[in-house]
Amino acid sequence: MSQRNTWLEVDLGAIASNVSVVRRRIGRGAKIFVALKANAYGFGLLPVARAVKAAGVDALGVGSVDDGVRVRAAGIHGPVLVYGGDLLSQATVSLMERHELIATIHDVASLRACKRWVRGSLDAMVEVDVGLGRLGFDRDEVARVVQLVRDSSRLRLSGVYTHMRVRAGEDLGALRRQFATFKAAVALAGPVPIAMAASSAVLDIAPGMALDGVDVGRAVYGLLPRKGGALGPHLRPAFARLRSCLIAVKEPSSRQRSLELRSLRRLGVIPFGRAGGIANLAAASVLVGGRGARLVARPSLEHMRVDLGRHPAARVGDEVVIIGHQGRSQISLEEALGEHPEVPDTAAALQVAESIPRFYRSGRRLIRSSGDLEI
Question: Buried-most residue among 67, 280, 321, 371 (CB within 10 A)?
Answer without folding.
Answer: 67
